[in-house]
Design a protein that fits this description.
139 residues, 3-stranded mixed sheet, two-stranded antiparallel ribbon, flat, binds zinc ion, binds manganese (II) ion
């Protein structure tokens, strides 16, 4: 019985990972849940979320806590940067990261220890720019 349960958990985690692998949209847990549910109809959002957190802790996926609210997930775990659309919230990879880690040489405030940094570019995606040619950063 325990084995069955473990098999089920392993299977769930594998499906979640597979669905995320092919997804370049940096989905939220909710968006991923919609997709995973087509393969595992009984899986709950809480289960998807919990598994994503475990996968992130193991370094198999990357958690993105960017501006604009919802936590998102990225199958690409190598260090890279993102641009977030101010119109629709879409997130895309930035092709060329700024040279050198931004936290290198940063001076921590008295008593603090810096262990990482968040850097987010903002802009407007193609869809938003086409929908609003005179706004949305058309220049
Ligand atoms: Zn957009
Ligand atoms: Mn990414």
């Amino acid at each position: 019985m325990r084995d069955n349960q473990e098999l089920r958990i392993t299977r769930q985690r594998q499906v979640i990972l597979e669905e995320l692998e092919g997804d370049r949209t940096h989905p939220t847990a909710e968006a991923l849940h919609q997709r995973v549910r087509q393969r595992l109809p009984r899986i709950s959002l809480a289960t998807v979320y919990r598994n994503l957190e475990i996968l992130a802790e193991r370094g198999l996926v990357r958690r993105l806590d960017l501006g604009g609210g919802r936590r998102r997930f990225d199958p690409v775990t190598e260090e890279h940067y993102h641009v977030r659309c101010l119109g629709c919230g879409a997130i895309a990879d930035v092709a060329r990261p700024p040279s050198g880690p931004a936290d290198q040489g940063a001076t921590a405030p008295e008593g603090w220890r810096i262990v990482g940094h968040e850097l987010e570019f903002t802009g407007y995606c193609r869809d938003c720019r086409e929908a609003s040619p005179c706004g949305a950063g058309s220049s």
